[in-house]
From TrEMBL:
Coiled-coil portions: none
Signal peptide: none
Record keywords: Hydrolase, Metal-binding, Metalloprotease, Protease
Protein name: Peptidase M24
Length: 365
């Protein structure tokens, strides 16, 4: 990864906004700009922050627990804060003659923001809260990133194929979820990109169901939503099916959802508003009479985070760009019966959508 080019691009954007320095604390943004892979133990316990200035100077600020890792992974000057981040920050900002200092307001505790405000007042610095600064830069993936994402998708599919072949009626949702996540680790994944969803019967009417002790019946709807992390990049896919013969109701709904997914994929290309893609898929479900059973957005971006920009939502009028990676995941969820969701990942290309999923599990009915 060319982290220096990424930082150069960020510095150019800061200059246009007349910002002298920015503190990057969100873990995925920090990694994107530096290669530092440490994770936070929640927003309240950071593993470090990246101070990027428009003068070209960049420091990685961390505590002693992560010093060696930061030095080995980034090649940047690493400074250890022994008396707190804010005190070290005050010293550094003075060395770069900072007049306008920005921070990531969406990943900063209120108490920390108050400490920044106090620092700014003492130093007579303008404090600029920013949101989605680096996230916007991360939306368009390089070919190197796309290659890593393809490998994550391929491994995710291999894990699913392995588990799918061993499924049988009587297994519990939790048993299947645990088997999936164990298989991910055995296959070499760094971990799951989100808690695996296994939902059967009426539980599958909950888009983000939590696996339970419910034992799967042979012909009831089953939804598995799973993703893993490989080389830092995420995958995300959803499969819906039945273990035994599907009844006419399931067959009808499954086919409607697949038709909606194909309509959404067909609408993807650069220059198209994101809500147009959502509308293309949603129209299929609405015309089939199931519109009120599809409540969430059509899809989201995937990269270092499993849920990131852009969003294929009914409200998002922003434009798709080549190199973006999105999920296309329409669903129909009927309380008391169950649900069907089908999710694949795609790259926005000049000629349309490049489908990243190539599973051969014969789940279309």
């Amino acid at each position: 990864m060319d982290y220096q080019s990424r930082r150069n691009h960020l510095q150019e954007r800061l200059q246009r906004r007349k910002i002298d320095a920015v503190l990057i604390s969100q873990p995925d943004n920090r990694r994107y700009l530096s290669g530092f892979t440490a994770r936070d133990h929640g927003i309240e316990e950071s593993s470090g922050a990246l101070l990027v200035t428009t003068t070209g100077k960049t420091w990685l600020l961390t505590d002693s627990r992560y010093q060696l890792q930061a030095e080995e992974e980034t090649g940047l000057p690493v400074l250890v804060y022994r008396k707190g981040l804010v005190r070290l920050l005050a010293r550094l900002l003075a060395t770069v003659d900072c007049q306008r200092f920005a921070f990531e307001s969406h990943y900063t505790l209120h108490s920390v923001a108050l400490a920044y405000a106090e620092l700014a007042e003492k130093r007579r610095i303008a404090l600029i809260p920013l949101k989605d600064l680096v996230e916007a830069q991360r939306q368009v993936k390089s070919e190197t990133e796309l290659s890593l994402i393809r490998h994550a998708v391929s491994l995710n599919e291999a894990v699913f194929t392995r588990i799918y072949s061993g499924l049988s009626a009587g297994m519990s949702e939790t048993e299947v979820a645990m088997a999936i996540e164990t298989a991910m680790h055995e296959a070499g994944a760094e971990g799951h990109s989100f808690a695996t969803i296994v939902a059967a019967g009426s539980n599958s009417a909950r888009p983000h169901a939590v696996p339970t002790t419910h034992r799967i019946k042979s012909s009831e709807p089953i939804t598995i939503d799973m993703g893993l992390i490989l080389n830092g990049y995420c995958s995300d896919m959803t499969r819906s099916f039945t273990l035994g013969p599907a009844d006419d109701r399931y067959l009808t709904i499954h086919r409607i959802v697949r038709a909606a997914q194909l309509a959404g994929l067909a609408a993807i290309r650069p220059g198209i508003p994101m809500n147009y893609v959502d509308r293309a898929a949603r129209k299929v479900i609405e015309e089939a009479g199931y519109g009120r059973y599809f409540g969430h957005s059509l899809g989201h971006g995937v990269g270092l985070a499993v849920h990131e920009a852009p969003s294929l939502s009914p409200r998002n009028r922003r434009i798709l760009k080549a190199g973006m990676v999105v999920t296309v995941e329409p669903g129909i969820y009927i309380p008391g019966w169950g649900g069907v969701r089908l999710e694949n990942m795609a790259v926005v290309r000049d000629g349309g959508a490049e489908l990243l999923n190539h599973d051969a599990t014969d789940l279309d009915l």
